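Run log, item B.
One chain of 92 residues. Sequence copied directly from the ordering sheet:
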Amino acid sequence: MNGNVYSSPPGRAWAAVTTEGLLIYSLDSGVSFDPFDLAEDVTPEGVQSALIAKKFSAALMMSFRLNERALMIEAVEAVPVEDSKQHTWHTS
């Protein structure tokens, strides 16, 4: 089995990319990784490129898939006000 191993800066988690797949280990129980619909082009750089190209939906979806708070905020705040719809919620 060939592959690469990557460690987080504080050393509390590590990941191995192998021919068998992606393995993620952490000492923290609160860490979660959900690779649903994650592709090679879903990167912080991809989010930035989508924002520059004014592809706001794509940028939002990629930022949500990456689950990086700062990136999600940046993508949400980049959507022009006139492009967003106002929704009113009524409760009984």
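Observations after the first pass:
- DSSP finds three helices and three strands in the chain.
- The chain has two domains: 1-27, 40-79.
Flagged for discussion on Thursday.
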